[in-house]
Each structure stands twice: as structure tokens, then as C-alpha cells.
């Protein structure tokens, strides 16, 4: 695998590393070392730590890829010296003085928020919210998303740790035009603010599952830059 950048993935809410399962085998076959950070959504600090110890484990240079809240994680952890490029997939990308929640509050709320409930201090996605989260997937895949997703602590988006990697690292951004979880206007704003190479796709919130070929091409482009 010498000479090929490593790829590290960071998942978002109601997800785990398996949400990148349509990307990982192809990237491995193309010669990349690939890992998905498995974080528990217990705190922003601990989730960033999980991404960092994954970055410590793989050789650089690294393309660091974040989906949704995973964008907040790669924004913080991407300051790691092995990270050479960032790829955001329908993702949050707060500035140094913003929390994830403060970034979201600048844009109209999305329909998925009508389908959440708090239990045991965790923020659960109801099955009625699948259409707004991953509605362009077959029903069986939607059910798998719900069954395998990690559930965040309710105040996760109000937490803060330092780091704004997109200010110093080259970035790519995939905007999901049909997103009903993260506002597409937020996605376009974030991409523009960071000066990312931006790609639009007519997708729900999970383009890595509904349009994996598009996402693979963007990751390949980022890897070629290193």
C-alpha cells in the first residue's frame, strides 16, 4: 500500500462505521489503508479523541472524511499533522467560535427534528423519521440504518472543543440537495466559507449510501491531491 494515502472516516448521529460500508471495500481494493472511527457519541471531547487515536494508527498522509456530525469531528481532529485533506459529506463544519448547534440555528430547522425523542439522556431517532434521514434508500436499508446507529447524548451539539482544520487544510464538500436532516443551505454556506471544492448530488442525508459512486469520486480526487 506504499504511496497511497490512508482514508479515515468519522460517522455522525444515528450511525456507526458501517454507514461507509459501500465505500470501504472499493478504497481498500484501490490500495488505500482504510479505518472508520467508532465513537460512542458520549461527548464531543471523547468522540474527537476516538478520531485522533485512529489517525495515530494509520500512516500519513490521510484523507479524513466526515459525514453529518462527523464534519464537526474532522474539523476538530483534522488539525492532526498526518491529515492532508478533508472531505465533508452533508456535514457540519463549525468555526472556532461556534458549536454545532449555533451553526444549525442560523438556518431553518429540518423535518427530521419532528421525529426525535429523549430517553435515558439520549436523543433517539424514531422510525417515523427515516424518510427524512435516509428516505432514498430501499426500506430494508432504512431499517438497517435505524438498527445499527449509535444514539447521541442529548446535549452533544452544545459542546465545544478547540480546532478548525478547514482553515488550514484543503477541503472537499458534498452537498446533499434533498437533505431533510442538515439544511442544504447550511451545507452550501459551510462549503463556501471553507473554500471547499464543492459537489452537489440529489440525495437524502446519506449520499455515501444512496450515491456511493459520487462520494468515491470525491474521495479519490482528494487523495490524488496528496
UniProtKB/TrEMBL annotation:
Keywords carried by this UniProt record: Hydrolase
Domain of life: Bacteria
Ranges where the AB hydrolase-1 domain occurs: 7-217
Gene Ontology molecular function, alphabetical: hydrolase activity
InterPro entries in UniProt: AB_hydrolase_1, AB_hydrolase_fold, Sec-Metab_Biosynth_Hydrolase
Pfam families in alphabetical order: Abhydrolase_6
Keyword Hydrolase on entry: yes
Name listed for the protein in its UniProt record: Alpha/beta hydrolase
Organism: Kitasatospora nipponensis
Amino acid at each position: 500500500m506504499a504511496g497511497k494515502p490512508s482514508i479515515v472516516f468519522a460517522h455522525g448521529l444515528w450511525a456507526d462505521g458501517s454507514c461507509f460500508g459501500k465505500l470501504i471495500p472499493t478504497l481498500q481494493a484501490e490500495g488505500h489503508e482504510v479505518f472508520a472511527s467508532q465513537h460512542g457519541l458520549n461527548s464531543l471531547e471523547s468522540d474527537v479523541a476516538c478520531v485522533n487515536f485512529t489517525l495515530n494508527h494509520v500512516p500519513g498522509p490521510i484523507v479524513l472524511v466526515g459525514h453529518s456530525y462527523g464534519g464537526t469531528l474532522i474539523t476538530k481532529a483534522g488539525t492532526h499533522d498526518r491529515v492532508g485533506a478533508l472531505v465533508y459529506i452533508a456535514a457540519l463544519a463549525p468555526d472556532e467560535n461556534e458549536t454545532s448547534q449555533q451553526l444549525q440555528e442560523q438556518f431553518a430547522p429540518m423535518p427530521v427534528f419532528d421525529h426525535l425523542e429523549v430517553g435515558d439522556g439520549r436523543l433517539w431517532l424514531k422510525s417515523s423519521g427515516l424518510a427524512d434521514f435516509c428516505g432514498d434508500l430501499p426500506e430494508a436499508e432504512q431499517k438497517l440504518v435505524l438498527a445499527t446507529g449509535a444514539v447521541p447524548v442529548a446535549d452533544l451539539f452544545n459542546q465545544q472543543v478547540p480546532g478548525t482544520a478547514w482553515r488550514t487544510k484543503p477541503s472537499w464538500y458534498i452537498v446533499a440537495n434533498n437533505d431533510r436532516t442538515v439544511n442544504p443551505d447550511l451545507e452550501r454556506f459551510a462549503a463556501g466559507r471553507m473554500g471547499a471544492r464543492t459537489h452537489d448530488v440529489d440525495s437524502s442525508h446519506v449520499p455515501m449510501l444512496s450515491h456511493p459512486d459520487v462520494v468515491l469520486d470525491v474521495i479519490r480526487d482528494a487523495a490524488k491531491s496528496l
